[in-house]
Amino acid sequence: MKTTLSSSSMLRSLTISLMRLSTSSAVAPLPLTTPFGHQLHHTLQSLQTDSQNANGVLHALVDVSTATQQITLNSLSHFTTCQPAASDRKIIDDYLDFNVKMLDTCNDITEKIDTIRNYVESLKVVSHLLQSNIEPHPTTLARAKHLLDSCHNAMETNKRPFKRFFSQKLAQSSSSDSLLGEILGGSKAVTSMVCEILRTALSFKSKQRLSLLPQSTRSSSWSCSLQLLQKQIKKHQKSGSSMMLVELHQTVKEAHNLRNQIKGRNKTRSGDVEELKTRCEELEAEIKPFEGKVKEMYKHLISVRMALLGILSSQF
Asked: Which residues form a coiled coil (predicted)?
C-alpha cells in the first residue's frame, strides 16, 4: 500500500535535510567566494534551527526571504560608489521586471489570506447556528446550508492556479559571473521558491503542485543549500504529499463533512459542529501571523527596488 505523507511530515523532513547539509561528511563544503554568498548560505542554513514543525518552517521560510532581501540591500551599497559593468544594466532591468511580479505575488498571497479569513467567519456563523443539541429549525438549517454552499463555491473559485514565475531565464540570471548577477540571482531564487511554497500552502487546492527553479549552472554554497531543499520538495511531491497548510486542510475537511450531512438530510452531530468550531479557531490563530510576515517581505522587496533605481539613475 502506498503511503501518503502529510504536509507536516514533509516539511519536517525538509528541515532535517537542511540539518544534514551541515553535518554530513559526504558533502564537501564549497568555497565562499563573496560576502553575499557567505551570508545567504548561512541564512538558508538557519532553517535548521528555527522550528521542527510544519507551520514553523513555513514562517521561517518567509523570514528567510525577508532576510535575503536585507542581505541583497546591504550588498547593493557597494554599487553606489563603484561603477557597475555595462552588462549589469540588463541584469538590473531583468530584476526590476521580476521584482514587479513578486510584488504582485505578495498581493495575491495577501488576498488569499483575506479569502481564508472570510471563509472562517462564515463557518463560525454556521457552527453558531448548529451548536444546539436540539435539531435546528428548518429555516436555521436552510441558512446554514446556504452558508456552507457559499463557502464551498468560494473555495472552488479560489482554486485557480497562481501565475508561475519559475523559468530558465531565472536560472540563467542566477548563473551570471558578475557580482551583481550573483546578488540579484540569489534574491530571485530564494524569493521565488518561498512565494511558491507559501501560496501553495495557503491554497484551497490540496493537490496543487509546486513549480521548482531549474538548476543553476553557477556552483556556490548557497545554491547548493537551495537545490537540496528543492530536491526534497520534489521527492515528496512524487509521494503525493500536500503542501496545503494543515489547519486549512482540516477546516475544509470538517466543513465538507458537515455540508454532506445537511445535504443528505442527516441529523447534524454536535461533536462535528464543535469540531468545525475548533478547526476555525485554530486556522484563525495560525493565519494571522502570515499576513504581517508577507507585508514585511513586500516592504523589503520595495527597498531593493528603490536601491536599484537609485543605481540606475546615478551610474548609467
From this structure: 266-293
